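Archive entry: two folds, one per protein. Generate the first.
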Amino acid sequence: MTAIRSVVLVGLFSAKDRDYQARLDVLDARVTALGGHVLGRFVQRRGVSDGGVRLMTAPLSRRFLIGPGKLEEIATTCSSRNIDAVIFINDLSAYQRRWLSTRLGRPVLTQTDLDLPAASLIIPTRSQPPTGQGHRSRGRRGRR
């Protein structure tokens, strides 16, 4: 079991969502109540430009939910500040969670994980991190 002490919060929000900071404050309070320390917040806004308005509810990346620049910013912070886990306010598919965890090199949780009755900031230790090899090889075969 691995205890999570330091986290960063991440959220993809529509430009129409005016209370996104308040939503992050609620998540921050939940993490703090569970014994964690929030060391950073990252916000990806969607629909701020004219072209983005049509796509506000869609993720920026099927694999990572957020854009590549924001992902790099989060990865750099996680490495430099020795962050234990990343918590997304958004729901993530198993696919997104696996790829984010692999790319960021640490567990990725969601707000929903913290809302479970037995929620804590302790995660089971895995002997081997997910690699996503099965999904990549299937995708390549489909493109040939």
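Generate the second and append.
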Amino acid sequence: MSENVQNAKVEVAGGYNPEVVTLKQGVPATITFTRTSDQGCLDVVHSKDFDFETELPLNEAKTVTVNTDQAGEFNFSCGMDMFFGKVVIK
């Protein structure tokens, strides 16, 4: 992670790995999701907190931008809200 941009990587396979992503406040950030299993309802990831929803094709990395202006804990989940992850901004 450089001082100018942060990128977290999350593997999507029967859940999110890691489930918790920690980012530094005020530093531009992205999260790259890669779905490696076709199990379950994990073909979509969305976040009301960050206002995104994106499809996750199998074995294809998809990157979303997250706003790090505010410290706190923010959620993301699968399309059916059965699997959850969290972004912690410090």
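Annotation attached to the second fold: The CA atoms of residues 73 and 88 lie 5 Å apart. The chain has no helices and nine strands.
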